[in-house]
Specification:
five-stranded parallel sheet, 5 helices
Length: 121
């Protein structure tokens, strides 16, 4: 990492996990992938809000209201767009570089729709 070029609007998966882990976590991990991707596998405790719904004007899920958001998708492209949109709406939001692909590569848990082991789709 280069200390002078660090983008404070983006975080690593390590930072995302630290910010969203446990009952007293400061941030909500907001997964903006579409329904099929979400069903295939997600980070435990993540909250789902597809980017397509957010772009169409949908409100955030109750669990995400009034809390800082760490936004994740498959690879980091949609989460960057979602975080920008959410910041424009007044939310405190950062996106996760590398998304769920990097999350899984780092060895962090991914669960499927029925609580079994999932994939980052």
């Amino acid at each position: 990492m280069f200390p002078f070029s660090r983008d404070k609007k983006r975080v690593t998966v390590e930072e995302a996990r630290r910010r969203t882990r446990g009952a007293d976590a400061p941030d909500v991990l907001l997964d903006v992938r579409e329904r099929g991707e979400w069903a295939a596998g997600r980070a435990p405790g993540a909250v789902h809000a597809p980017l397509s719904a957010l772009v169409a004007g949908a409100a955030l899920p109750k669990a995400a209201l009034g809390r800082p958001l760490t936004v994740i998708c498959r690879s980091g492209n949609r989460s960057r767009r979602a975080a920008e949109l959410l910041r424009a709406r007044g939310a405190e939001a950062v996106d996760v570089r590398g998304g769920m692909e990097q999350w899984a590569t780092a060895g962090y848990p991914v669960v499927g729709g029925s609580g079994d082991e999932g994939s980052p789709a």
